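[job 4471] stage=fold_predict status=RUNNING
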Amino acid sequence: MRQAQVWRYALPMDAGVVLRERRLKQRDGLLICLREGAHCGWGEITPLPGFSLETLEQAQAVALAWIALWLREQPAPLPDAPAVAFGLSCALAELAGELPEDADFRCAPLCAGDPDALFAALVATPGDKIAKMKVSLYEAVRDGLQASMLLEALPDLRLRLDANRAWTLEKARQFARYISPALRARIDFIEEPCQTRDASRQFAQETGIAIAWDESVREADFRIVAEPGLAALVIKPTLTGSLTQIHSLIGQAHAQGLTAVISSSLESSLGLTQLARIAAWLTPGTLPGLDTLSLMRAQLVRRWPGSALPCLETGALEVVL
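[job 4471] inference complete, writing structure tokens
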């Protein structure tokens, strides 16, 4: 016999989290638990404001309609809404025992505030040192100086940078002027530095700083093709779709000789632990971008190893179904 439960959550966020000029005070989403016989599977549906195609209210309505069909054992193809498709596909994969338990809990630390704090954390990190920095929140010159300072201070550091298409080509050039040519090879990539793909391509050609596609991956006209200056695809499953779609994208990227990086869309600890399992399964050896739990003030149902944040159970959440 099939059963399903749905809860709605609201996790308080760190006061400094800003998405596309909008301050995010809490992270809202749904938890899904599907049960069949002695087995169960969990999923998280968490549209990201300003980035997802669907709102949480729309996602909830679509998910409940799908669950109603699933409970009656009627044909229920996964919805088109990416966050819903991803969350439901994770629940189904866990239910069927198809999502491996092994996880990659390593993550590139995120420089979201004080660079001194990031420096201290990196000094204490054994092995490969990879960090992620958001750029374009301040002046391009400031970003360039900060990235250069970190690279010069830590000779074994590599950086991943994310500009979210915020720069004009000239702004991106201003950033690059403050990164000496000797340091640029230690920037693994900068995600979508410019407002258009062509401008990002020109930036890579002029500066020798590699780029990665992020937003482009989710656009209808995008095709995965190796090209000069392109190093990686950044794949955010919550914004992309089902596990089947994620698997296909990663396979296409690897076939073109590109790195595929699984990255967070500010999921809860439950969603992050599933992303860590997906990363270990589909992108082994590539450090995922999952260092976002520190932006939240609580965990949810499943704990991230080593986190001291309190963990909420389903009894503290709003029951939807």
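[job 4471] summary: DSSP finds nine helices and 15 strands in the chain.
[job 4471] exit 0
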